[in-house]
Amino acid sequence: MSSADDSVVVRFVTEDDKDGWQRLWKSFQEFYEVSFPNELDDFNFKRFLDPTVKMWAAVAVNGLSGEIIGMVNFFSHMSTWDFKDKIYINDLYVGENSRIKGVGRKLIQFVYEEADKLGTPSEYWCTDESNHRAQILYTKIGYKAPKIMYKRNGY
Ligand SMILES: CC(C)(COP(=O)(O)OP(=O)(O)OC[C@H]1O[C@@H](n2cnc3c(N)ncnc32)[C@H](O)[C@@H]1OP(=O)(O)O)[C@@H](O)C(=O)NCCC(=O)NCCS
């Protein structure tokens, strides 16, 4: 198991993190070959900081340089299958130069810990069938559910 350098800290975003978060958010879009308008970035970031909205973002920060090297965006929702809400991990991204050092694992562990604190310890997420690199990590930190996703349209 690779472990992120102890100097890498994962924490919720603050107002000052907008530029660093947005840089990774744009790279994440390039990775998925999608492009969202800047207005959506602003909308998302406002939601992350709004204590009345159950949507959050956390960043991995290199403690030495202060650079934001990873991000995870997640939200909570109700489910008929449980009394408790479930957490959906919407987006996960680690900068190319910081990969395979345990940062992705650390970001997901942060979500697990925060979800436990909220009393909603059930998390789930999706990835592309072709995203083998992500799946290497995911099968170590969760399990592959026997589900297929359908959509009416869109991404
Ligand atoms: C998927 C992603 C978040 C993983 O981040 P990361 O920081 O590299 O992940 P980690 O280092 O925590 O974990 C990678 C695990 O895969 C293992 N691994 C083995 N061979 C690997 C390889 N060739 N490539 C990548 N990981 C490999 C690592 O050893 C590690 O396992 P370990 O913790 O048990 O040692 C990152 O690659 C990324 O941002 N990719 C582009 C965007 C993306 O795919 N996001 C996910 C969308 S669902």
TrEMBL record:
This is N-acetyltransferase domain-containing protein. Coiled coil: none annotated. Pfam families: Acetyltransf_1. Residues 8-155 form the N-acetyltransferase domain. The keyword Transferase applies. It comes from Saccharomyces eubayanus (Yeast). InterPro entries: Acyl_CoA_acyltransferase, Diverse_Substrate_AcTransf, GNAT_dom. Keywords: Acyltransferase, Transferase.
